[in-house]
């Protein structure tokens, strides 16, 4: 006799099916940043589980995330989570030791609390008013902070189709921490080109009176002032511009990350100032 529990349908995943567009190496900038800044937390964790939430129509980003995390944490595991069942079925042939694929959404269908949730290009199709609730739900699933750890990390952001330009927010169990701007410097005309890749929480805030607009304005000015350094290459110009930014903005990283075409700023400095 079949029990009622055995026949009960599985809970419906939380979220909406997205377009699912993906490309190999699209998230390389985000992955390398995660490995650099969160690798120590992953190494310390007894079971370092990372979730690639909404990996899309092909599993490349989950496969690549495992490879890159294991350069920093050899025992890391990755679970790809997708709300579209056909995408999960298509990905499962790529499963192997340390890599699994599951049907689900913002509820994050994994045991325990993951050390990392990466949600790239997932909230782009949502309304800004929905972002705070999604962040809160995902942060509640992260490994908690304790005396020896800052807890798990949620990285949520947006990039272009081939990963040249990317902006993401990093959040811990208690909420947002930082915003990172990352780019292929050879493709950059000015820093405000990154505005079109702002995550959903900020993309509608690039208007006068909002902090992110002021930041990008100041970044463009610093970039223009650093023009003489262009003769040494775009990297040296970027480093000089970011160094000048630190006089007025709480930049949280240093030259080692700036050389990668990155700059990270405290969330509080760029957070929305007023309701839309």
Automatic annotation (TrEMBL):
Q: Which GO terms describe its molecular function?
A: methyltransferase activity
Gene Ontology biological process: methylation
Is Transferase found in the keyword set?
yes
Where is the region Disordered?
1-25
Q: Which InterPro entries match?
A: SAM-dependent_MTases_sf
Q: Which UniProt keywords apply?
A: Methyltransferase, Transferase
Q: Provide the protein name.
A: Class I SAM-dependent methyltransferase
Keyword Methyltransferase present in the record's keywords: the answer is yes
């Amino acid at each position: 006799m079949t029990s009622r529990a055995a026949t009960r349908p599985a809970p419906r995943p939380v979220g909406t099916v997205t377009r699912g567009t993906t490309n190999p190496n699209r998230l390389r900038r985000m992955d390398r940043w995660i490995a650099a800044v969160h690798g120590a937390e992953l190494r310390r964790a007894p079971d370092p589980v990372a979730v690639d939430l909404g990996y899309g129509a092909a599993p490349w980003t989950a496969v690549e995330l495992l490879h890159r995390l294991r350069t920093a944490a050899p025992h890391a595991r990755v679970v790809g989570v997708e709300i579209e069942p056909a995408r999960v079925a298509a990905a499962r042939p790529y499963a192997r030791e340390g890599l699994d694929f599951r049907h689900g959404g913002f509820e994050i269908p994994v045991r325990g609390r993951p050390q990392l949730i990466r949600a790239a290009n997932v909230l782009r199709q949502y309304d800004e008013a929905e972002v705070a609730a999604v962040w809160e739900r995902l942060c509640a699933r992260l490994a908690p902070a304790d005396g020896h750890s800052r807890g798990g990390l949620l990285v949520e952001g947006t990039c272009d189709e081939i990963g040249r330009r990317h902006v993401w927010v990093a959040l811990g169990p208690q909420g947002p921490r930082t915003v990172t701007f990352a780019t292929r410097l050879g493709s950059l005309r000015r820093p405000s080109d990154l505005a079109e890749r702002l995550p959903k929480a900020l993309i509608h805030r690039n208007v006068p009176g909002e902090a992110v607009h002021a930041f990008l304005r100041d970044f463009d000015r610093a970039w223009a002032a650093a023009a003489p350094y262009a003769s040494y290459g775009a990297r040296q110009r970027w480093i000089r511009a970011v160094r000048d930014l630190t006089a007025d903005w709480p930049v949280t990283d240093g030259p080692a990350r700036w050389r990668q075409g990155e700059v990270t700023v405290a969330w509080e400095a760029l957070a929305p100032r007023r309701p839309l």
